[in-house]
Structure formats: C-alpha cells, structure tokens
Amino acid sequence: MKKYKLIKTYPWSPELGFIVCDVNDDNFKCTEYPEYWEEVVEKDYEILSYLKKGSTTCTTTKRRGGESHKEFWNIYSVKRLSDGEVFTVGDKFTGYSSEGNTIRSFDLRDNILIVYTTNEGCITNTPGTGLFNSIKKVVEKDYQILKSCPIEGTIYSVERLSDGEVFTLGDRIKVYQHGSIKTIDSIDLYGNTSSMREGIWFRYNTGSCHMTHIIKQKPQPIYLTHDGKDIFPEDIVWYVNKENFYHDYIKAYPEVKFNSEIRAYFLTEEEAKKYIIENKPALSIKEFWEITTMSGSNRVKSIVLKELAKKRLNLK
User: Which residues pair with 75 in a beta bridge?
Assistant: First the structure.
C-alpha cells in the first residue's frame, strides 16, 4: 500500500506533513496533485560504506569533505533493515533470476535502492515488489573447526579462514566495531534455516552473534620480563630473587605487583636458571682461572664453566 505526505497546504487541507494511505476520494487524490502530495518511499536499507571510483580497496563509511558520492564514490555495501543482512559488491546471491548471480553495483534513484547484477539485470526495493527482500546471500564457508568433542559435538575452537583468526571458548570478543565486550560461552554451527544464518555463531550471556561480525579482543601486556618480553594476563612467569637467587613461578594477573628491583622475571624456567648461573657467585677465583687457562676453544671453556656453576648451585 502506497503512502503520501502533504508537502504543501491548500484550503481545508490537513497540517503540513500529514500522511495518508493510498486513497482516491475527492479530498485525497494524491496522484493527481503532485505539487501537494509526495509519495513516501519506505526504505529497507542502510548504506554502510562507499568505494572510491577507480579503486578496488579505498572505502569509507561517510562521504568525505562533502563530496558528492555520485561523482567520487560508489555505494559499496548496504544493510537490509528487515533482517540485518549485509550485501557488498561482489557478493553472490540466490532467489532472483538465475542461480549464483553476483552483485555488480548499487545505485539510488529517488531514494529507491537499485542492485545491478552481473547478468545485466537489476533489483529494486520499491514497496510492493519485494525483489530486494527476496534475495538470499550465498555465504561461502569461512570457518574451520579446530577442536571439538566427537561424542557431545561441542565445539571448542574454530578458525576464521578469511583472516586466520582463531576463536576459543572463553575468549573475549567485541560484537561489531563499537559493541560491548563479551565472553564466548559456547560455539554453535547452524545450517541454512529461516531463522539463523548459516555458519558459526558465538553465544554469550546476553545473546549470540555470527562469527562474521566478531572482533577478537587481544589481551594487553601488563609487564615486561627481565629480557624485555611481554607478560600477559594468566601467563606463567618465573622469577629470581636477586638477593638469595631463589627461583619459583607465579601466574600473572593485572593485580599482581611486579618489582624489578627485588626480582628478575622470565617466561621460562630455563631463562630463570640461566640468569642464576650468570649472576650468582658459585666459583672460586682458583677454579675460574683453572678453566679459563685450560687448552681448548672459548666455546668449550664456556660449557665447562656453565656445567661447573650448575653443579655448585645444585641446578639440573
């Protein structure tokens, strides 16, 4: 059903902006008086991005510098508001004309979205036609299940093939670019159904989202080791007391206090033991000179020194 909005008043007319449905009585013959009535085109799309003309990679979410997108930018991706499906130039789709059709370009004409296809056809979202609403994007598999339980079917980790990003249960993620941070509670695989888009879905405490729209949150380092390596939350960190050269390990959390004046920190026990060997007094001057003046290469002498130091320090 078409709708019309009053854009210019006349005697006994309703207020400016008044909207009526498709009627043709003596008071509201909208189609016969275009100077007073304008058809309201209900949009079922939102433009998400533009592609610079002559480029295949330069995209923008807004037209820059007030430039007319007709002159400098082509529409690159749109979202269908009825179901949130995103269509981008180059996407394959079904449900209209021949199977396996591809989107060649988008255009606007009087606020009506026109989708041009590779078979030289076009689709519009003109109210009443339903063509744009009837197409379905063909999503090629963009995932690989890395680890799952063969008995329960539970998925533990998956890889997104488009960028190689790996997602695991418990990972912190952001839904869309400006969404809030969530934790993955479960990973599910849905087939082609009317209610769920095909592919990998992540569930969290307030809902779920398709893997396409997920950004993995990388943990930020909370400290550096003695040799300049990043320490992340939940890392196992080995430390050496600089006074008595006692060594042990701890689990790193943001609230853990790291004191480089008292302790030296390392990511492996081997690195911690190496620090002890190189810094804790363990040999007499006599033993040192006996080894350094012995025959053989410096590499051999270094090995003998290290083994003797490990023996003196009871390090295996």
Answer: 50
Distance of alpha carbon 255 from the chain centroid: 28
Please tell me the predicted confidence (pLDDT) of residue 194: 46
Tokens of 263: 């302790």
Prediction pTM value: 0.38
Query: What is the pLDDT at residue 277?
Result: 79
- The rounded distance, in Å, linking the Cα atoms of 115 and 189 is 30
- Provide the pLDDT for residue 193: 45
Strand, coil or helix: what is 138? strand
Task: Please tell me the distance from the alpha carbon of residue 295 to that of residue 291, in angstroms, as a whole number.
Answer: 9
Rounded distance, CA 102 to CA 124, Å?
15
pLDDT tens digits, 47-95: 888 887 877 667 777 665 545 556 778 888 888 887 788 888 888 888 7
Where on the phi/psi map is residue 97: left (φ > 0), alpha (ψ -120 to 50), or beta? left
Rounded Cα distance between 225 and 235, Å, is: 11
The residue written with tokens 């598999």 in the block is 141
Low-confidence residues of the chain, pLDDT below 50? 66, 128, 192-194
Burial of residue 286, with CB atoms counted within 10 A of its CB: 0-12 exposed, 13-18 middle, 19 or more buried: exposed
Give 74's strand partners: 51
- 167: closest CA among 216, 231, 99, 225? 216
Backbone torsions φ then ψ of 307, nearest 5 degrees: -65, -40
- Quote the tokens at residue 46: 């939102």
pLDDT of residue 226: 87
Neighbours of 272 (CB within 10 A): 24
